[in-house]
Design a protein that fits this description.
Blueprint lengths: L4 H31 L4 H13 L8 H28 L2 H4 L1 H23 L10 H25 L3 H6 L1
Length: 163
């Protein structure tokens, strides 16, 4: 199977979008954790608890690293999903601002209503209306828009108009 220019372009686009979204989102999470007077390592162990359940909080540095890696894997997976969807639905790159905002809401709902309950956490995390608003804003500005805009930047202008 030959490597096409599309495949060559997709890897850096997806990796960069995942890295930026992952870095922005984890920074927002660390700030929120710090504002609640909790250590960021505990937040990362909370991410690892998706794999390990409550045992992640006794895992020390290993579960901190697992949480960090898991976070960036998830962010990059969302970027890959957006990239491949944008090849099929060009409006995702043509209207990146609107599409990225809608995508952020989909990511938020999927994570909180599907992924977390199906993980080793085994339940929905309780959220106040304020929590929902803050998380939606973080997902829009730290996940959805960075992914959509970075992936649009990797799409040649000629493809945006002809997709």
């Amino acid at each position: 199977m030959a490597v096409t220019p599309e495949k060559v372009r997709s890897a850096p686009a997806i990796l960069n979008a995942g890295a930026v979204a992952g870095a922005l989102d984890i920074t927002a999470a660390a700030v929120q954790t710090w504002l609640k007077a909790r250590p960021p390592a505990r937040m990362l162990q909370g991410i690892a608890s998706g794999w390990l359940g409550r045992a992640s909080y006794q895992g020390g540095l290993a579960t901190v690293v697992l949480g960090f890696a898991t976070h960036f894997f998830i962010a990059t997976s969302w970027a890959a999903l957006y990239w491949f969807a944008s090849r099929r639905f060009p409006v995702l790159v043509r209207r990146a601002w609107v599409s990225g905002t809608v995508f952020a809401i989909v990511v938020y709902e999927t994570m909180y209503e599907v992924v977390i309950p199906l993980s080793a956490i085994h339940h929905r995390i309780p959220r106040t209306p304020q929590d929902v608003l803050v998380q939606l804003l973080i997902h829009v500005f730290c996940v959805g828009l960075p992914i959509s805009l970075i992936l649009r930047a990797y799409t040649p202008r000629s493809e945006i108009t002809t997709l």
